[in-house]
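To whoever is on call:

I kicked off a structure prediction for a single chain this morning and the downstream step that reads the tokens threw a length-mismatch warning. I double-checked the sequence; it's 67 residues and nothing unusual in it as far as I can see. Pasting both halves so you can look.
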Amino acid sequence: MSFGNDSHKSAKTLGYLNSQQALSDFAVLVRSLKHNLSAEASLVVVFGESYGGKTKKNTTMTRPKKG
């Protein structure tokens, strides 16, 4: 991590996370939303251009659907 254990403590340092950390944050967000909405079995659709498209592509490549 760029700032060690302090990386997630400030919005100022979050901008320096690497792509793997950003994808991990995205995965945590999706799991949290699915849990909070009682939608654990629901599929997630991610699309977009620029940052959204790149995130979708990297998520699909590094975290394929399990099941």
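Update from on-call: the warning came from a stale cache, not from the record. Cleared it. Sanity check on the structure: The chain is about 50% helix and 0% strand.
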